[in-house]
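All the exercises in this workshop are built on plain-text protein records. The record below serves as our worked example for the rest of this section.
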Amino acid sequence: MSPLDINFVRSQFPAFAEPGLQGQAFFENAGGSYTCKPVIDRLFRFYTQRKVQPYAPYEVSRLGGEEMDEARARMAAILGVDTDEFSFGPSTTQNTYVLAQAFRQWMQPGDAIVVTNQDHEANSGPWRRLAEDGIEIREWQIDPDTGSLNPQDLENLLDERVRLVCFPHCSNVVGEINPVTQITAIAHAAGAFVCVDGVSYAPHGFPNVGDLGPDIYLFSAYKTYGPHQGCMVIRRSLGQLLPNQAHYFNAGDLYKRFTPAGPDHAQVAACAGMADYIDLLSDHHGGPTDSAAARGAFAHDLMRGHEVTLLQPLLDAVKDRNAVRLIGPSDASKRAPTVALAVNRPAEPVAAELAKHGIMAGGGDFYAVRALQAVGVDPDVGVLRVSFTHYTSQQEIDQLLEALDRVL
């Protein structure tokens, strides 16, 4: 595989040509990515040419509905699942909340759910609230020194009462990539379904959810170069088992069962631009043409290869620095380029100091309060988080390292 053509990649993101952003290196991608041009073009077209109620027989409405259907079909194909197993919602947090209500109706008092303390609160809090209805919540705890989840610890939590295991593909502060297929197999062997929060992983390459094996996979389009939508895979065997959460007359459509509110038509249609971008990236680098899943896998590997190359020098620069603690692994191949640093003072002012050097980063708890507490970090002090993705350049990494030298 040829290396990523960073100039081509950056040409697909209008933000890099904006005069007001020149000299500013964007290192808060874990909070939301820049938007690619194909998404912006589709969103503009929908608002200017298709902004009517979709799925009516007149031409402009028909075209609008077709674009919405195209987005769902193409994203499902990239993820390796059936079209009706993929749906959109207003956010990942909202999608998770709706799912939790479905499980609340389906489960019985005394049943159990496993959650972790490595998660962003969006994939932990809604499940933990089911304790109010007599559902037992079991916490799969991270190692306080490394922040890692040990699959053996999960096995010790499982029995015939566990109905669901929830964990992140990778944490938004620990960054370590969890072995989804292994963990899913352990849970399935115990008779439990699996819900994976992919919000912090998907920006670094769309996974083949069909191959990974979980029953639910969630991520946010605004972190994968798209509009502010939540993306949700629910495999058929589980989706048809859980109670319908939508209008009763939509119960027969799997992709509508867990979307009680009407979708944002324009943003859903614009999500096809994410698939456009994957195709552009694959084609430019001589990728496969046989299937969307193959192109997605090719683009995934391109992204990860570039990110790992840029990430390792950053990890090397901070892992042994005095008064700085790197959260998570120091091997770039084992983590996403989301790097949380516990410094010896409140993190938010440190991020403000970095901004003076043209570094856009963040400080705080990032809704990962439980994870920070588990590794001994005061959430009120927080961590400095620098996060990037495949459109980040070597020059921006150099700018970051120089700024960290000055500030830390």
